[in-house]
């Protein structure tokens, strides 16, 4: 089995120094708890509630930034997937990105391709598909928050062989009926079950410029059921059999991926 | 608003006469309750637990069968969507089909394209995509049971303009954690919310050749939350604003369908 940890943190808006120290500590704590994979929230390096591209650019970093070296050093034998605010080639190009890091450094970067609400006024959407990354902990698919709500994204990752989908998220609070999971969790549960793939969503904590968050960190098994949620604490840890994702059979006559009828879909 | 009714029935295996009377009564009861749309279970004309194509063929009917005239007469001002066992051009070609009927007769037929488990040993899969049908009660997309678990199906129906997805189903009981919806309902909730479209799943009742059913009939709103479930009774009725499906905007900057990035999906 593979031990998955999510660290539901509260970054300080625009405070890279604080957020670096906080995330490095969070990675170390998770690694000490035996984590093979550590997932951090969306925009963990920067916070979320920017009101302009210029403000986000102030907090944005390049792919050669020391933050990733710090994460790599803290990772030990684990793999870290976390969100950060990425500067592009020009100061008015800022991405809502994620990185996959192990002790050797960054293995892959990804720029969020489906931007939520006011993110559209701050960030540039990425133009590359969410990646599946070969890591020492297995094949990890990466997407960010609103990306998860496009079944095409999770399906594409699963078809490409993801054994775990790791999703840094920042879920603003929304109303839901009593007894229900957050809507984003329902969507992730469906994606997990219909693709037989585990999904780890790492949400954030804290209130930022008046915005509260769902604090809905959830790790879902390849059968679609919730294995662990944030509850009160920030660290969520559970063991998952990632190898289950390699076999999409779910009955004597059914295989979730082979049963698809692509010629009948009008997408 | 549109009043949606599901009639969670217990067909008798292979007993067309009984099942005709039962479904006609069920339609009348739903229409008397003010239903604009009446959904019946999968294979309502025949029952489900056939062990061979030959046995299913005995219970199968053609598209000109009197059953549909009886349903049309019972429909009044409503639209009926129900499952039936359809004979093909040869006795060894049997389909797990659905029909959309109003007072004028059948408006559309559909043959299940994703067959579940032993259905693969009994039925021939359909080769036409699930349809969206213009009806007096709105644009109704139709699919059957396991079809629902392919997000491409519900997405395709929603993209084609479905205001309601009506799904005759037969859900065999499966284990689920306490407090959770049946897994098929979780999947339908996600499809409803990510497409902003209402979904009505009509399950069945009774035990057939030892097989028990979830009795999980559920009507879901375009926000993805459950509006009504079967509970104890067979008739489930709720009012739904189907026009909500015409506008896929969910924030000042987001539209669930326009936000898709088809060039990035590897499906």
How are the SSEs ordered, and which strands pair?
2 copies of one chain form a homodimer.
Chain A (H helix, E strand, L loop, with lengths): L1 E6 L8 H17 L4 E3 L13 H7 L6 H10 L3 E9 L6 E9 L2 E7 L7 H4 L9 E4 L2 E5 L8 H9 L4 E5 L14 H13 L2 E5 L15 E3 L5 E4 L5 E6 L8 E3 L2 E2 L12
Parallel strand pairs in A: 1-2, 2-3, 7-8, 8-9
Antiparallel strand pairs in A: 1-12, 3-4, 4-5, 6-7, 9-10, 10-11, 13-14
Helix pairs in contact in A: 1-3, 5-6
Name its key features.
6 helices, 267 residues, 27% strand, 6-stranded mixed β-sheet, homodimer, 14 strands, alpha/beta
What's the gist of this structure?
2 copies of one chain form a homodimer. Helices cover 22% and strands 27% of the residues of chain A.
Largest sheet of chain A: 6 strands, mixed
Distance from first to last alpha carbon of chain A: 36 Å
Strand content of chain A: 25-35%
Question: What's the overall geometry of chain A?
Answer: globular
The count of β-strands of chain A is 14
Can you walk me through this structure?
2 copies of one chain form a homodimer. Chain A has 267 residues and is an alpha/beta fold. The first copy, chain A, has 6 helices and 14 strands. In chain A, strands 5-4-3-2-1-12 form a 6-stranded mixed β-sheet. A 6-stranded mixed β-sheet of chain A has the order 6-7-8-9-10-11, covered by helices on one side. Chain A has a two-stranded antiparallel ribbon with strand order 13-14. In chain A, a hairpin with a 2-residue loop joins strand 13 and strand 14. In chain A, helix 1 packs parallel to helix 3 and helix 5 packs parallel to helix 6. Chain A is globular. The model of chain A has no long low-confidence stretch (mean pLDDT 97). Chains A and B meet through helix 4, helix 5 and helix 6 of A and helix 4, helix 5 and helix 6 of B.
